Amino acid sequence: MKTIKEIETEVSAYTSMDEISTSIHAGDDRKGVIRLLEKHRRRLRSEQAQKDKYSAMSRYENSLRGEVRHIAGIDEAGRGPIAGEVVAAAVILPEGFYLPGLDDSKKLSLKKRLAFREIIMEQADYGIGIASVREIDELNIYQASRLAMKRAVENLDAVPGHLLVDAMTLDTGIPETSIIRGDANSVSIAAASVIAKTERDMMMAAYDSSYPGYGFGGHKGYGTKDHLEALHTLGASEIHRQTFEPVKSILFSR
Q1: Does residue 166 have a known ligand-binding role?
Q2: Residue 49 carries which DSSP code?
Q3: How far apart are CA 14 and CA 43, in angstroms?
Q4: Which CA distances in Å does 131 have to 64, 147, 202?
Q5: I want to staple 182 with a disulfide (CB 3.0 to 4.6 A). Which of 10, 64, 146, 189 is the partner?
């Protein structure tokens, strides 16, 4: 009779529920084996769920393949904060690319975002675009976000034949599809959301040394309680958005 460790090695290679159902170990009544088989049933259900989700998130890309060579997903990070730039990314995933678990970057852990960032940057064509704090104040955050997205597209190596954009239109002259909640409904936009968010988060972390006391590395420029307290104590820094409240009120009160 095989040991549970030997069975673990064998069962971990199973790729379908049928293999578990028809396994010679399915009749083993040892508690350790029963728990082991259930563990791998959960693993296979999780893997299948990820495949199904990835397939559903690929429907826009799949509908364009064959007609369009380069499909770029575009997203931004940083519309809500009261400090820092808005950062956008454009990503062209290679055909056959598969990254289980890819999703809206806000739903991913920091560890997973950074791991996915490396994979995407290694295997895909990507461009990053930034709109400055001054541009945000001069144009408004919506137009600054569009500007950052256009710059991201311009920074791609390949010229995309179609753009998949998260809830926005860019009017670049390239055919485009605006997708509501695109970062949760398109793998290309989800990949762009990962690049944009990690890029902006690293930029904000770097501001900790340039503007000590505000805690930019922690809150990333969002209006948290600690950030607002620092803002009232220290006043607005060069990277605070002067047209955003409460920055605007603090500037006028001093």
Answers
A1: yes
A2: H
A3: 10
A4: 30, 7, 16
A5: 189
